[in-house]
Amino acid sequence: MTHARGERSALCDLLDRLGPDAPTLCDGWTTYDLAAHLVLRERRPDAAGGIAIRPLSGYTASVQNRLKARHPYPELVGILRRPGGVYGLLPALDEAVNALEFFVHHEDVRRAQPSWEPRTMPADFERMIWKRLSAMSRLMLRRSPVGVVLRRDGGGVAIGGAKQGRRVEVSGPASELLLFCFGRQDHARVELSGEPDAIARLRVAKLGV
User: Fold this and answer.
1) What is the pLDDT of residues 135-162, one digit of tens each?
2) What is the value of pTM for the model shown?
């Protein structure tokens, strides 16, 4: 099983267990909202543009709400459980496009619940995450008001953020660094070193793609 399909399956199991009204780390979204978002992203390419392009976000939100109105929560999770759309045609394409997406959203649900603990990720998944994160670090950290040095446990450095001024070093496993760079700063298990004011500014910065 690919990492994308493993994360998809584990996320859907968790969504089934928690029900439609559980919180997530996605601001204002319940588990029902997140399930609808992921189905939209995969099966409604006409509406997916609003995920990243603000002027299109109204249409995206309306389609997401219609998905919720049309499908009861268990049915929507069942749709999500089956790879679909363009991404689901080939496992390799699914892995390339969905592995990080499903990992991050799986953690969005896990870490919004009480008494969560970080998982120990497979070594090959950590390597994949680091390879992609190091390639995307400048994009994901482009809105950081301070320079950022990502230092992966076991070796590896990537940089991003402001090119001038103070820097903050963020250290941890690749999976935790990814969550930090995706804007989950308060829930990523990483170590930060640098001037206190620079760290404080980085913690509240809007990060991610």
Assistant:
1) 999 999 999 999 999 999 999 999 999 9
2) 0.92
Domains (range + CATH), the chain: 3-110 (no CATH), 123-203 (3.30.1050)
Q: Select the more confidently predicted residue: 89 or 82.
A: 82
| Neighbouring residues of 14: CB distance < 8 A, sequence distance ≥ 6 | 106, 109, 110
Q: Is 146 left (phi over 0), alpha (psi -120 to 50) or beta?
A: beta
Q: For 118-125, which contacts have Cβ atoms below 8 Å and span 24 or more sequence positions?
A: 118/176, 118/189, 121/173, 121/175, 122/3, 125/3, 125/99, 125/175
Instruction: Please count the residues of the chain.
Output: 209
- Distance, in Å, from the CA atom of 148 to the CA atom of 192, rounded to the nearest integer, reads 10
